[in-house]
Specification:
Blueprint: E1 17-18, E2 21-22, H1 24-46, H2 50-75, H3 79-86, E3 92-95, H4 99-110, E4 122-125
Antiparallel strand pairs: 1-2, 3-4
Helix pairs in contact: 1-2
Length: 127
Amino acid sequence: MANSVYEINKGINRSIEFKGLKAQYIWYLAGGLLSLLLLFSVVYILGINVYLGLVMIGGLGTALVMKVYAMSAKYGEHGLLKKMAMRQVPKLIKSNSRKVYRELGRSRKKNNPVKKNLLTRSTLIHG
């Protein structure tokens, strides 16, 4: 059996790229394959037909690889993390009191940090 050598392309200040997968997508694929291995062991222990389990795991594995490669191509190195972070940003901030804005103006003039309880009167609305 011949030894296989896989080249990992990495330049200075660049993330790891392996067979077209970039950065964290390598870990997503590895985690997915590990979960498929555990799923197959559960199917085997339950006594379900081995060939049926292989077909099921093979189909899920193919779908996993296709999805991870598609996400890697679509979002790139940091795009998926940026998309998940944008979900945490509220669409608008609703305030029922003008006092919040008055205190903000005063704190800027005095060069003092904004009081912690100012935004407790405001409502953050996530979309």
